[in-house]
Amino acid sequence: MIEIAGNSYSLDDPMVMAGLIGAGVVLLILVLLFLALRAANRSARMAEPLAQQMAVLGQSVQQLSLGQEQLRGGLQHVSDTQANAQVQVIQTVEARLSAVQQHMNDRLADNAMKSARALAEMQERMKETLHGTSKQTATSLTQLQERLAAIDKAQDNITKLSGDVLSLQDILSNKQTRGAFGEIQLNDIVSKALPSDSYVLQATLSNGRRADCLIRLPNPPGPIVIDSKFPLEAYEALVGAGNDMELKAAVQMFRTTVRKHITDISTKYILDGETADGALMFLPSEAVYAELHAKFPELVQESFAKRVWIVSPTTCMATLNTMRAILKDARMREQAGAIRKELGLLHKDVERLGDRVANLDRHFGQAAKDISEIKISAEKAGRRAQRLDNFDFEELAPEDRANVVPLGKTEG
Fold it and tell me: Rounded to an integer, what distance in angstroms lies between the CA atom of residue 105 and that of residue 148?
């Protein structure tokens, strides 16, 4: 970089290099001219051709000076142009920087507004979420309290049920109360299956024995007794046997107890001419009934032989439904005569109704005939009235006047 008269010139610039080369050439010419002038004093006479060349060289140097001036002007113009271009570039860069800065400010403001809006929306959503969560939490707590209350109620029911179970165990541990338990269950089943007038509870027979229930079936088969038996001790011993000896003793106890119940029912509640040729033994436990039929089939066969039919609550209900059908059929047979009588009366009523309908039909026929004759008479009277209305006395012929009916005075 070279500074000349306050202006900076780059050595890489072609114009500057051309100027330097020109300046070097001029300097070289001046040196040669100086050397020539020194030699001119020595060889004045021999320098005439050289003088001519020097004159030509002087002209060339003058032309070089003019070129140098032109070069200096071009360099100045280039420097001014470069300065103006630099100023314009600086102004353009500043304008673009200002525009970019403004755009950045606008973007930052827009981003700030969007961020504020998004933050507000997020806060609102968080508020709604927290409100919903708190509401759900309150609902869940309410439901939890309700469930805890239900659990407390269920616990109370369980406690009460435990007491009831203990009471039931106390009831079943006593023979009298256990018998009452079986009778109550039997009464409940019978009352649901049969009409109230078809059975008697605690019926006393002619032999003085009292049966738990007497079903009034028609002959045959006749009234049949149902007696409740509950061999609970023998069943519990059978189920709770811990070894073969205890099991053998429990089996013998269960067989003896059930056989005694079968014999008692057969001898006490089957009476010739008074009851049916058989009776029912009601076991109020399905478990005892299943154990009896599964492991003691000989007892079941023995009960069949003694005409004692063993039933459980389920089979008792089925048996009573069959008895209900028998009672219904018997009552239908009892009412057959009354039904035939009512059918005869109904037949007579129908015949009487037919006669009355025939009479009414004749009346309607006569009335229709009378109405037809009345219509004919009315039509004749209408035609006569029309002729009288159109009659003109002035147009009567002399020979027709004799046919005119004279008007008499009306009686007042």
Answer: 62
